[in-house]
Amino acid sequence: MSHFDTLIVGGGAAGLLCAITAGRRGKRVLVVEHANRCGKKILMSGGGRCNFTNIHATPANYLSANPHFCKSALARYTPYHFIEMVERHGIAYHEKELGQLFCDDSSKQIVKMLLDECSAASVRVETSCSIERVSHGESDEDRFRLHTTRGSFSAPSLVVASGGLSIPSMGATGFGYELARQFGHAVLPTRAGLVPLTLSGKHQEPFADLSGVALPVTARCNGTSFSNYFLITHRGISGPSILQISSFWQPGDDLRLDLLPGRDALEALQQWQRDRPAAELKTVLGDVLPKRFAQRLCEHWLPNRPMKQFNGPQLREIAQVIGDFALVASGTEGYRTAEVTLGGVDADELSSSTMQSKRMPGLYFIGEVVDVTGWLGGYNFQWAWASGNAAGNAV
C-alpha cells in the first residue's frame, strides 16, 4: 500500500488543476487516470485549440439546482488566474468571440502545461490505471483506499474528478456518480447538454436536403435566449445557438427561432415592399438568408408572390413566422456528441468553498461530476479550474 496526502480520481482539467494546487502546498498527491493519457477532452476541445476559459465568466453562466453554489469557487479563481499560467508558459492565445479564449496553436500546449506544473509540484500521475474498488475505514479508519490495476493507494483525502457521461469514446463513464452513491450522496438526474437536437418525421422532412446550411438566429426556450449561428444537419439542428439552448430544452418544450436577429421583421418586410415591390418574397428573403433556406421557407411556411401583392395583415403574419419560427425537436444526439453532462452530484451536499462532502470528511467532488454546468464557450473549463483550485487549497 502506497500512502499519499491526497488521491485524485481523474486526470482531466479539474483533477490536474487540483493536483497542481495541492502539490504546490507541499502535499503528496497521486492522480489516477484510467485512460492511456491525461486530458483527452482538453485535447479535442475547441477543434483542437482548446477554448480554455471565458473572460466574461460569472455565476449567471452556469446551470445548477443550487444556482448559488458556484459563486465562491468562481470568485476565488478567475479566468485571469488561469491566463497568468498560460502566459507564464509562453502559450499564445486569442479571443475568438464573446470572451472565448483559444490557443493560437494547439490544445496539446494546455495539457503539457498542466502536466509540467504537476511535475514541478512533485505530483505523481498514473495513467492506464483502472480502479477496481474504493474503500474507507477498515484497519486505518481515517484513510481512503484505491485498489487499482497498478496497486493499492491510500490517503486521508479523496478527490473525485472523473467527469460526466459526455463523449464515452473519450473514456467517459458514470464512475464518479457510483462513487458518490457509495458514500451516501444524492445524484441528481443526468442528461446530455450542449448537444445537437434531432428532428424526425414531418418536422425533419423540409430540412432533409439542407444539411450544411447555416445562418445567425436567436434561439429561445423556457425564457432563455441565445443569439449565434444555427446549423442544419443530416439528423436535425446544431450550431452554437442550438447547443446553448439544448441545455435549457427537454422533449415537449417549445423551441423558437428569430430568423432575423436584431431586426424588426415587420419593418424589414415593409421596407422591402416599398423598395422592391415587384420582387418575390423568396427573392428578398434570399438576400438576407441563405437562398436555399429562404426558398424552403416560401415552399413550406410562407406564401411566395411579389411583395406588392401582400396587404398589411399578411405582412404581419409573415413577420410572425420569421421572428418566431417554431421548431419541434424530437430529442438530442445524446452523450455521444454532448459537450457536457447536466445534473450530477447534488451541490447541496458539498461545501461551496472547499468542494468537500458534508457527509464524508476528506471526500471531495469537482468539475463536471458535480451538478454545475456552464454555457458553451469556455465556461465549463473555468468551472473545472475554479472547483479544482477550491479543493486543492483544502485537501
TrEMBL record:
Membrane listed as a keyword: no
One Pfam family of this chain: HI0933_like_1st
Signal peptide interval: none
Domain of life, source organism: Bacteria
Keywords: FAD, Flavoprotein
Span of domain RsdA/BaiN/AoA(So)-like Rossmann fold-like: 5-393
All copies of domain RsdA/BaiN/AoA(So)-like insert, residue ranges: 191-340
Cited InterPro entries: BaiN-like (IPR004792), BaiN-like_dom_sf (IPR023166), FAD/NAD-bd_sf (IPR036188), RsdA/BaiN/AoA(So)-like_dom (IPR055178), RsdA/BaiN/AoA(So)_Rossmann (IPR057661)
Cofactor requirements of the protein: FAD
NCBIfam families: aminoacetone oxidase family FAD-binding enzyme
Name listed for the protein in its UniProt record: HI0933 family protein
